[in-house]
C-alpha cells in the first residue's frame, strides 16, 4: 500500500484548546475528513510529545524519536492512523500500544527495530495494516502477532530476517498479503511451513518477490516455488510404535511405551495422556530414544497414551492403551486373522493380538502343526504372523492360539498362495504318428487359480473339431490323424498370475 499523504484544505479548523488537548508546539492540528489530526513532520522530536486525546490521525514522520515508551501513547483511544516513518526507533516498550484498540494503520518503516516479541503489538486488535519494512529486524517471536486478528497486510521487506518460526502467522486468519523481499532468508526445512502458507494467500502475486539468499543452490529461488525435496525435508516416519500394556494388581516396577521415528530434520518426540501433553517428572520419564517410561505404574496410569513425532515437515501420531486389572483375566482377542490371498514371493501378515492377565502367550500352527519361527516366518511382538516370502507350501489353514494361566482361545484363517502355472507333464519335443491313427500330446499344469489349458497349432488357436479332444488334464488327443495335422503344437497354461507354454512337433507318416 502506498504511503499515506494528507493534504490540507485551504481552510481548516484548529482544535479547541484546553489543558488536556493543547496542540503540541511546532505541530499542526486540524480537522480532516478522517477526524482530528495532528501533524508533526520533521520537527526534530526525540520523544513523542503530549498529544490531544481526541486525535484520530497522528503524523510523526521524519523526527529523531528513538523509543516508544509505555506511556507515550496513553489515552489516545480514538487513534486510527499512526505514522512513525523515518525516525530512529530501536525499542518499543512492552504495552506501548495498550489502549489503542481502534488503531487500523501503523507505519514504522525506515527505523532501527531489531527484534519483535509477543508484547510489542499487544492491544492492537483492530490493526489492519502494519508497515515494518526498511528496519534492522533479525528476530520475530512466534507469538509477536497473536493479538492482530484483524491484520490483512504485513510489510516486512528490506530487513535482516533469516528465518521465521512455524506458527508466526497462525492467529492471522484475515491476512492476505505478506511482503518479505530483500531479506537474507536461509531456506531450510524450517521454512517449509512458510512456503506453504504464502501459496495460500489471496494476493499471492505479492509474495513472488520473496526469495532465498542461502544456501547457495537455492539462491534467488522464490519461497512459493520450494518443495520438500528442495529443502531436503521428509515427514516423520515411525520405526517403532507404542503397543498396548496390560498390568495387574502385581504390576512391574516400570512400564514402557516404545516410540521411535525417522525424518529430516530429526523429529522430536512428545507424549500425550488422554490427548493432554504429558508433563515429565519422576513418575513419567521420556528416554533419549523417545520411549516413555512409567515408574511404579498403577490404577491412576490407566489411559490412552499417544506418541507425537513432529518436525518442520509434518507430524505423525500413534497411540496405545495402558490397562489395569485387579484380578486375573482370561485371554481376549483384540485382532484376529482373516482369510487372505497372496501372490507367491510376496510378503503377507496374519494379524493376531490379545489381552489378559497375565499377558497371554501367542503361538501359531498351520494345518494343526505348530509353526517354528525361522528367517522367513516370524511371530511379531504384537502376536501377528509375518511371512516374508510366501511359497506354495505355505498354503493352508493357520490358527492363532492365545493362552495364559486362566485359559486359552483360538482363531483360524485360510491362507491361499496364488501361483503362476507350473507344468507337471509336458508333451514330447517330437511326436511321430502314422496317418489314420490317433495322436496323444500330454500336458498338465498346476497353479492357483487353476490354470486354463489351451492348444495352438502353428501359432493359431486349434479349431474346434470332433477329431480334437482336450482332456480334463489338459492333454490333447487327435483322432484319425491326417497329413494336414502335421505341424508345431503349443500347450498354453494361463491364470491371472501368469502364463506358461510347452511345444511339441507332430510328424505324420504316410500309411
Automatic annotation (TrEMBL):
User: In what way does this protein cross or attach to the membrane?
Assistant: Single-pass membrane protein
Q: Where in the cell is it found?
A: Cell membrane; Membrane
Q: Name one GO cellular component term.
A: plasma membrane
Tell me where in this chain the Ig-like domain is found: 236-318, 331-416, 421-507
SMART domains linked to this entry: IG, IGc2, LRR_TYP, LRRCT
Q: SUPFAM superfamilies attached here?
A: Immunoglobulin, L domain-like
Keywords attached to this Swiss-Prot or TrEMBL record, sorted alphabetically, are: Cell membrane, Disulfide bond, Glycoprotein, Immunoglobulin domain, Leucine-rich repeat, Membrane, Repeat, Signal, Transmembrane, Transmembrane helix
Checking InterPro entries in the record gives: Cys-rich_flank_reg_C (IPR000483), Ig-like_dom (IPR007110), Ig-like_dom_sf (IPR036179), Ig-like_fold (IPR013783), Ig_I-set (IPR013098), Ig_sub (IPR003599), Ig_sub2 (IPR003598), Leu-rich_rpt (IPR001611)
Protein name (Swiss-Prot/TrEMBL): Cell adhesion molecule-related/down-regulated by oncogenes
Task: Give the organism, scientific name.
Answer: Paramuricea clavata (Red gorgonian)
